[in-house]
Amino acid sequence: MSEPRPLQLDQVRYNEQGLVPAIIQDAVNGRILMMAWMNVTSLEQTLETGHTVFWSRSRQELWPKGATSGNVQVVESISMDCDGDTLLIQAHQIGQGACHTGARSCFDLEPDKFE
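-> structure tokens emitted (115 positions)
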């Protein structure tokens, strides 16, 4: 298995709204915790602080994860996919959960089974 592609800021490809999807993965067990959007400023702040900062599309403002809940994410690594249009952030989830529902993961729902 090959290593993830390291983050190179000048190669991140943002969409028409200036956003890039970020998948947050538990650095300990590899579980997907959540997906959120980042813009240039939120990515820069994430790199500066070592904690995830996203762009809230509904509020149209920066959203430091855990600002109100206390459930922060400490970044271990950031990589991007082969096209540079999706980020993978490995982080340590501090607090109860990553999901706004309080669940550990936004993907805690029972998956559909394909036959």
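The chain has one domain: 5-93.
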